[in-house]
Amino acid sequence: MASSKSVVLFALFLVSGYPVFAQDQWTMSEVDELKLLLRAFFEEDVDRAPGCLRLAFHDCVGYCDGCLNFGNPANGGLEDIYVEINDFYKNVLPLNGKTMSRADFFNLAGIVAVDTTVDYNNISCDEGLDPDCITMPKPPLRFLMGREDCVSSPDTEDNHEFPQGFMNHAEVMATMKRIFDLNTRQTVAILGAHTLGEMTRAGSGFDGSWKAQSDNKFKFDNRYYKFLLDDSITWTHRDANEGRSPDQRWQWTGRTNGEEIANMLDADIDLVKLLDIEDEGGHSTCSFEDCPDAPTKSIVQEYANDEAVWVKDFADAFERMTSTVPDPGVLAPPAA
After folding, report:
1. Which tens digits make up the pLDDT trace of 89-98?
2. Is the same domain home to 325 and 308?
3. What are the tens digits of pLDDT across the range 254-284?
């Protein structure tokens, strides 16, 4: 239900089920002011950042339209961060008499989440708190405006196809192409966002952090790719539901000398190995050592060896994914 403020600020018409807003024109300095407020929101609790980045991606399944269906299991685990960021949206906007669509706002929050976690990582490097720290350049993420919220924003009952964690290599590439029009290189780059956050049974049904140690899940770096190539890591395929449910959900845990280093989905391991997935639970008939190398392993090696190449490609993939709208030509940066 639109608020009285949004009714006053927007002229609303319906075109094929989507509203067309006479959107307020923002300047870059006004967007920077909103970015500072979002930055404070994330610095207050850095655990919000990975969730907001995931929210920005999930909003763009179907279209980037400010609407999510929490009845879809693929959106599991997003409700808490959605409530927080939506409260922020309602309390902070209008800013300087201007508002923006939720879809644009979710995109901006994702951009600021990345910026905040890059800085979180680099401060750790500067202070010598992490001996394996990698100082990261910031991805050159552009904020484009013009996304339109669906009629029922922020909720929808629409069910869309989501990428699944237990897909094989070909399925991952085909699905990301079909949903977001990402090419192979962009798909490998965007999956690097798994360097942030963690898997939860309440969310994806899987468990553990992609980077298992301490606060690494809040650091935007390229260790995701390094772990996929690290010969010192022994990867074990395990059922996350073992002893809990007959519905199997297979994932990978990597250990070095018995210490848990990382957790990966089949869709992650697919980037370096051609898994032979035999069922809907994601069980592979070949081990990490025995599965043949994937054709995308060379891209993973590029990103592991050169963080600057990765962040550039990540920015390209992020913009492509978050430009999933009926007419991408309407998207434009704020005024100078």
Report:
1. 999 999 999 9
2. no
3. 999 999 999 999 999 999 999 999 888 899 9
**Using CA atoms, how far apart are residues 172 and 83, in angstroms rounded to an integer?**
30
pLDDT grade, residue 18 (50/70/90)? very low
Does residue 144 fall inside a structural domain? yes
> What confidence tier does 32 reach under pLDDT thresholds 50, 70, 90?
very high
Count other C-beta atoms under 10 Å from residue 157's C-beta.
Answer: 9
The helix-helix angle for 48-58 and 79-92 (nearest 10°) equals 90
- Please indicate, yes or no, if residue 236 is contained in any of the structural domains: yes
pLDDT value at position 188? Answer: 99
Q: Which domain holds residue 325?
A: 8-158+321-330
What span, in angstroms and rounded, lies between the C-alpha atoms of 7 and 204?
36
φ/ψ of residue 263, rounded to 5: -130, 140
> Are residue 151 and residue 253 in the same domain, yes or no?
no
Residue 216: DSSP 8-state: G
Q: How distant is the alpha carbon of residue 257 from its chain centre?
A: 31
In a domain, 44, yes or no: yes
Q: What is the per-residue pLDDT for 332? A: 97
Do 91 and 152 lie in one domain? The reply is yes
At 29, which amino acid appears? S
Residues 312, 51 contacting (CB under 8 angstroms): no
Whether residue 154 sits in one domain with residue 12: yes
Question: Which of helix, strand or coil describes residue 293?
Answer: strand
Residue the block writes with tokens 């100078």: 336
Q: How many domains does the chain fold into?
A: 2
Report how far residue 148's alpha carbon sits from residue 138's, in angstroms, rounded to the nearest whole number: 28
326/188 same-domain check: no
Question: Residue 312 has which token pair?
Answer: 């550039």
| Domain shared by 262 and 243, yes or no | yes
Q: Is residue 336 in a domain?
A: no
pLDDT digits (tens, 9 = 90+) for 96-150: 999 999 999 999 999 999 999 999 999 999 999 888 899 999 999 999 999 999 9
Q: Which two tokens stand for residue 275?
A: 């898994």
The CATH number given to whatever domain includes residue 176 is: 1.10.420.10
Tell me the residue length of the chain. 336
Spatial contact of 18 and 151, defined as CB atoms under 8 Å apart: yes
pLDDT at 22: 56
